[in-house]
TrEMBL record:
The keyword Aminoacyl-tRNA synthetase does not apply. It comes from the Bacteria. Keywords: DNA-binding, Transcription, Transcription regulation. Residues 9-137 form the HTH marR-type domain. This is DNA-binding MarR family transcriptional regulator. InterPro entries: HTH-type_Bedaq_tolerance, HTH_MarR-typ, Tscrpt_reg_MarR-type_CS, WH-like_DNA-bd_sf, WH_DNA-bd_sf. It comes from Cellulomonas oligotrophica. SUPFAM superfamilies: Winged helix' DNA-binding domain (SSF46785). Gene3D superfamilies: Winged helix-like DNA-binding domain superfamily/Winged helix DNA-binding domain. The keyword Lyase does not apply. One of its GO terms (molecular function) is DNA binding.
Length: 141
């Protein structure tokens, strides 16, 4: 019986959700929540930005992002500096500690996933490599 697109979509949604939750369980030493780590990851990828830009990137309301940024600043993981042209705003950037937390969390997640991949045979790893490319295409569509 052929797999319909809708059936496959449901199977992928469940499998990807479980894999994502398991990967996110691998955290750095700071024990950040997912939204807190996401802010660090965005700043690592895109560089300094305003809390409003961070809120847009995460698709959350600005007051929620302001609270997240303040918590990260209190922990020394981000720094808030005056905006160079608008004194009413701040620019948020990673500190060395925040950068280290991003690297450590990603290292742990990569190590966990690599250990699972080591359990697979060559054909299974090739299948996953092909699937990764297809998922990349779907995600950017």
């Amino acid at each position: 019986m052929p797999t319909t697109a809708l059936t496959l979509a449901a199977e992928l949604r469940v499998s990807l959700g479980r894999a994502t939750r398991r990967l996110k369980a691998e955290r750095g030493d700071a024990g950040l929540s997912d939204p807190q780590f996401n802010v660090l990851a965005i700043l690592h990828r895109d560089g300094p930005m305003s809390p409003g830009q961070l809120a847009d990137a995460e698709r959350i309301q600005p007051p929620a992002m302001t609270r997240t940024v303040s918590c990260l600043a209190d922990r020394g993981l981000v720094r808030k500096d005056e905006h160079p042209t608008d004194g009413r705003q701040v620019v948020v950037s990673l500190t060395a500690e925040g950068e280290a937390e991003v690297h450590e969390t990603r290292r742990r997640r990569d190590a966990w996933l690599a250990a699972r991949l080591d359990e697979l045979d060559d054909a299974e790893r090739r299948t996953l490599r092909d699937a990764a490319e297809l998922l990349r295409r779907i995600a950017t569509a």
